[in-house]
From TrEMBL:
<feature type="transmembrane region" description="Helical">
    <location>
        <begin position="183"/>
        <end position="206"/>
    </location>
</feature>
<keyword id="KW-0812">Transmembrane</keyword>
<feature type="transmembrane region" description="Helical">
    <location>
        <begin position="131"/>
        <end position="153"/>
    </location>
</feature>
<keyword id="KW-0472">Membrane</keyword>
<dbReference type="Pfam" id="PF11193">
    <property type="entry name" value="DUF2812"/>
</dbReference>
<keyword id="KW-1133">Transmembrane helix</keyword>
<protein>
    <submittedName>
        <fullName>DUF2812 domain-containing protein</fullName>
    </submittedName>
</protein>
<dbReference type="InterPro" id="IPR021359">
    <property type="entry name" value="DUF2812"/>
</dbReference>
Amino acid sequence: MKRKFRLFATIEREEAWLEKQLIEGHVLIKTDGYGTYTFSDDTPMGKIKRRDLGVGPNIQDYIIRIDCQTFKSNSEYEEYCSFLKEFGWTGIKSNKKSGKLYFIGKNSDTNELFSDVESRIQRDIRSRNELLTMNTSMLVLYFILFFDLRLILHPSRAFLTPHLFEMQGSLFVKAFLFELPFAILRLGVTFVPIILAIFLFYRLYLSQKAINQYKKQVSL
């Protein structure tokens, strides 16, 4: 089995990457929905995992689609997967709490998980709402726990050695170089919430942009 980690700004980009993996012979068999992907290999166990998903020897004949749904119970989730399986889509093991579901099926003009633009709009709206609720709350928590405005305004505070910048010569160089990795770590932790906020708003922007583009197609 091969494990990879990737983050994607949109569902379309994630689907395109997963299809590229299929072309290269890697079948997604498990994901946590947050960026960690496990793919089958050519070992006997890997081939068994592929067969469990209904994937034949010609891996390139298949596609992966992502849906965004939340379920009140496990039985409701299983019922939804059974419904889609009747149309040739097999659910891939994923973390339902992420709000993202992964399905694999035969690639054909008549076999598409989202057969019209309206259904794609609804999927992207659900994805955007999930971003707003879950990621925003996580971002607030990060700001509370790690954000320190004093370190951003005065980076020298990241160095905890008393009177460090009053030292001179080799004593200063040794003390500075010794503490530099720890100071970088403290500053890095402080900047994590800012980086996450930028990435979140970028994802929201692209998600809303995709929704608007689909709506234009409907109105034409």
